[in-house]
């Protein structure tokens, strides 16, 4: 116990010294405010990641880098935010991987259906050389990728009927992200896939112009989709990363020590959000059940996986060597 106490004290002193050293690095820096935007609400994992990032950055720069968070799509939808970052009208954001892949198409390789068997498998690839290589490619489109937070494993909800196999999706109007991999995945599953921004999807569900959508449990819970969606299927059909991303115009103006803090803080905030999502999922599922949502935890996964084989045939080669490299990494 004494050894533990000494080690804990030593760690505390070490962290304090690091913090003091970081603060000293910024003594001569002019203060800067960065606007960080996302499209979801304050109960969502993106906001958890953003607030952790804000806390870490402001502490480590002694307040010289201030983060202002704009939730709820107050600065625009995700494509609008990314375009704003490219020209410098938005500084940074936490953005779902799907829209990012419209700017660097290789990013969509992560969202091939049933690619990752577990969150841990996804983290190993994203935080390793393959993930970093793809973050670096964002520089080619005037963006700077900092780290991978997560949207998480996506699940199907709808207002019409229980779904256990692809046959049950026949004719259902399902909102998907504006990304061709998602669109083709759900078309192969038999749905009428409708690409749509998230802000529009919420209204469409309320009005009944679409029957369902697909998102992780934390989104389904935080947006109270049980109010419009009666059925959930834990299909876990795709693992969706999210990206802490900045515009190159603002990134290139920051001193190197600030860039280092931002990148390290983004990684730590991402890992914090991942853990929070895992911790909260069981409670969120229980709350959705209590609210009246019928949840199928054991759908026919083999039937779903077989149905999406054409997606791999269509897109496999499009991502260059990334798919075989990811598969190799997963098999290690």
From TrEMBL:
InterPro entries in alphabetical order: DctP_fam, TRAP_DctP, TRAP_DctP_sf
Signal peptide positions on this chain: 1-23
GO annotation terms (biological process): transmembrane transport
GO cellular component: outer membrane-bounded periplasmic space
Keyword annotations: Signal
CDD domains: PBP2_TRAP_SBP_like_5
GO molecular function, one term: carbohydrate binding
A Pfam family that the UniProt record links to this protein: DctP
Protein known as: DctP family TRAP transporter solute-binding subunit
Organism, scientific name: Vreelandella andesensis
